[in-house]
Write a structure and sequence with these properties.
84 residues; mainly beta; 5-stranded antiparallel beta sheet; 5 strands; 0% helix; elongated
Length: 84
């Protein structure tokens, strides 16, 4: 099992439009390292906790040990949501 050390910060509040609609969201960014190999990671996600009980969108990037370009990147977005 991998161990990570990440620092999370709310970096902004912004309006985002995704498949599930338009939301006034908090943008949260995590930056840190995988402890066993010093590989840098970043995770950025947008949340509207008063509207949706999960993240609206998330981006992940994994970088080489000694810096440089991302070797893995992906983004997910909520496509639909029914508050029921």
């Amino acid at each position: 099992m991998a161990t990570f050390e990440l620092t999370f910060r709310v970096v902004s509040r912004e309006k985002i439009t995704i498949g599930a609609g338009t939301f006034d969201a908090f943008c949260v960014r995590a930056e840190g390292w995988r402890i066993d190999n010093h590989g840098r990671r970043t995770v950025t996600y947008w949340i509207a906790p008063d509207k949706v009980p999960r993240y609206l969108s998330m981006e992940f990037a994994r970088y080489r040990k000694r810096g440089g370009a991302a070797v893995e990147y992906w983004r997910e977005e909520l496509v639909t949501f029914d508050a029921g």
